[in-house]
Here is the input.
Amino acid sequence: GEQYRAISPAEFFYKYREIAGFSNPARALYQTIRELVENALDATDAHNILPDIKIVIRRADEVNPYYKIVVEDNGIGIPPHIVPEAFGRVLFSSKYVLRQTRGMFGLGAKVAILYGQITTGRPVEIVTSQPGLKRIYYFKLRIDINKNQPVILEKGSYRKNREWHGTIVSVTVEGDWSKAKSRIKEYIMRTAVVTPYANIVFISPEDEIIYYKRTINKLPRPPREVKPHPYGIDLEVLKRLISSGKYTTIYDLLTKSFQSIGDVTARTLLERAGIDPSHEPAKLREDKLLELTNVMKQYEKYRPPTSLALSPLGEEVIIAGLKRIYQPEFVEAITRRPAAYEGHPFIVEVGIAYGGRTPISTDRYPTLLRYANKIPLLYDEGSDVTTRIVKEEINWDNYLVKLPAPIVVLVHLCSTKIPFKGVGKESIADVDVIHKEIKLAILEVARRLRNYLSKKMKEEERRKK
Amino acid sequence: GEQYRAISPAEFFYKYREIAGFSNPARALYQTIRELVENALDATDAHNILPDIKIVIRRADEVNPYYKIVVEDNGIGIPPHIVPEAFGRVLFSSKYVLRQTRGMFGLGAKVAILYGQITTGRPVEIVTSQPGLKRIYYFKLRIDINKNQPVILEKGSYRKNREWHGTIVSVTVEGDWSKAKSRIKEYIMRTAVVTPYANIVFISPEDEIIYYKRTINKLPRPPREVKPHPYGIDLEVLKRLISSGKYTTIYDLLTKSFQSIGDVTARTLLERAGIDPSHEPAKLREDKLLELTNVMKQYEKYRPPTSLALSPLGEEVIIAGLKRIYQPEFVEAITRRPAAYEGHPFIVEVGIAYGGRTPISTDRYPTLLRYANKIPLLYDEGSDVTTRIVKEEINWDNYLVKLPAPIVVLVHLCSTKIPFKGVGKESIADVDVIHKEIKLAILEVARRLRNYLSKKMKEEERRKK
Ligand SMILES: Nc1ncnc2c1ncn2[C@@H]1O[C@H](COP(=O)(O)OP(=O)(O)OP(=O)(O)O)[C@@H](O)[C@H]1O
Ligand SMILES: Nc1ncnc2c1ncn2[C@@H]1O[C@H](COP(=O)(O)OP(=O)(O)OP(=O)(O)O)[C@@H](O)[C@H]1O
Ligand SMILES: [Mg+2]
Ligand SMILES: [Mg+2]
Here is the structure.
């Protein structure tokens, strides 16, 4: 007969780890670095801390291709009672809130740890301390895949002898350094492009040291958690707000748990749904809830979702970052005004670097640096909305760019919900409003490049005479 | 402070349902049909039952764009005590075994039900009975998203008055029929192409009836569950076999729980790992387990994984399917010999139809019908390994095909583990050995087409004289 069974989320992502980016030793080594570095940066720049990040990859076995990866940060640390679940339970996260962060799924560190566990048997080691605490806490863990829970193999703490806060995560995985090397270095370099406010040190298995030194001392403004926007409503959202029991009237629930719903809006919505504002939320019938949900979705006069939840890089940071890496003769950036899709705010930022040490592009389109919530995206370029725009919808000749040319286009999308195509976070789906915004942003900076190149050409012609 | 929390798998796939294909009402309507039809076909053709599948989409509300979708099959049904979890618990499945089926994740029906629940509030209705049972069982369910468990709103049973077995699933979702219409019809048509042994009836919201009548009475041989192949080994697999307690010696564990490990191979592996064959599995130290895992992975003389786990269509079925839909002047098919990747067997099948009622392709490459485990893949064509081959690696001129041309290329990959790029099952990752097999298969059938076209051209030239 059929074997019916339930599996845990740990089992699911162990079984289908390729979908999370762990498809072969080279790619897994890359993804492990990514997940740990993205956690380290989330723990710093979202919390007003100038990041100091150290990444070490060491060969961990003479015979087998095992690599020990250590990532250290000076971030907010993790409370000791939280550490086991943060690293030992799949679908556990501090980022399930409405605020822009690199992390979003509650998966990254765990799948890396799972991969290390099944390929090398070695546990993950975590050392952490929050600012202000007197002690540093350490753990050796592995994941009970069947039950999706941590197994603490060792734990302890010791007194701090100096002011330190942050986290050190160490996993050992089967990898392929020679195959993964150029991608890993590219990832770290592209991370450095958008974090000129970070010190990043990378030590490779060949003992090569790459140091991206901080060049500006100001951080992008950190993101703040916000209330949901009514365009994000559905029946489940509404039911949960009701079952939280926090509101005595439906009017209170609407005005206090959503952004962009004030007195007038609340009364208008309730009137359209045929609900008395003083009605007890828990007593509303299901069909009334559905009607209210639909009325809320269809109302057209809300203030758009607040961009306080976002943390764009800003033009100064983009320019500083491109300068640090490419020393271009031309560099310009734009941070567009906030837009929204399905109740989520988003901002598109574009930077273009030209000349200087900017590498020559291919002959078909400029070198493209894609970013989402400050994460560099290197794979699945072909299925990303940005690639389609840069490659197929812009005639670079019109901007006096004769490809191949020393031109890099940086595109950064930030949002409280990036429409990633997969949990491996490699490409962005083609959402209409986002597509339009990205295109407008690129064209705007391209026009400035055209002005520059046109002036430059006239200069050169005049010099020839 | 940071809000650390765990979420259930239901919550995860509710929050990120776009990643599972539920990204907007049109796409969600399409995906709902897909998930239910794929379940219906798995319940029939994998179990020696000639499928009778009925698909009905009806408008369910005059004002709101709600659609009731009913899919009925004559399959093996579901035991009544299993129904609530099968449809109410995310990551519950009968397909987590080593056997080719369309389903694999334990998600499909649940995400469709979740989507219906949050957009229309209506519960899913299931009617089912297994062959030989005297009663038919019915349920009305919804999913408790927070706890990832079913909530039974109604259930009951009644006596059968005729011999019936199978399942009827009915969900009501917010959709967009006008936008989704052509894709849904295309999906059903492409399903019919590879199931000429199935009766498929589709009734649209416009009361249009499309009937694909069975044209052959033989089924592809059904897949059988098999033991894992040693190339699929990792530390977790080995530890689980040990903790099952079923084997008194490590020799027994190897020879009885794996395919392709006989007496000689077992002794060779154990000798290389420095383990006595009579050693009690539970007493093996961790480092010895890792050593054994590595020895097993590196051994090169295994018999390849058995293809009994697979259920290829077969050349007769592919030809009959292409004939049913295209009535082509030329049609040929090939089922390649089994191959393997990472311990999983796979078979590539290709069919080419030319002329007759075959539609004209675009001017750049033939019309491509992609299939994985008999599932038609319609989206994300650009990121699929097959597209890359058909579009970029084959010069169709060499095969006397002057594009645009009335040519359809059908490519079917079947395996116990399809390397899908995402849980929405739309495109296949570029795995080397699979890439090579697909290419060889297409070229082989393309050569036969070339022979045909060359003869045809000579005929026409001779007739002109
Ligand atoms: N270096 C770190 N400093 C502080 N907290 C961390 C660090 N690494 C992980 N965490 C905590 O552990 C949680 C789990 O991390 P994990 O990478 O598994 O998921 P995530 O970052 O929330 O989401 P994603 O899967 O998108 O990466 C994080 O949400 C964060 O709270
Ligand atoms: N029509 C059906 N007839 C018989 N069993 C069914 C039917 N539909 C669903 N099931 C059972 O319910 C289980 C869950 O279905 P669901 O679609 O959620 O997951 P799956 O098919 O196993 O995997 P996937 O997410 O890849 O579709 C199936 O594994 C199967 O056992
Ligand atoms: Mg993370
Ligand atoms: Mg299914």
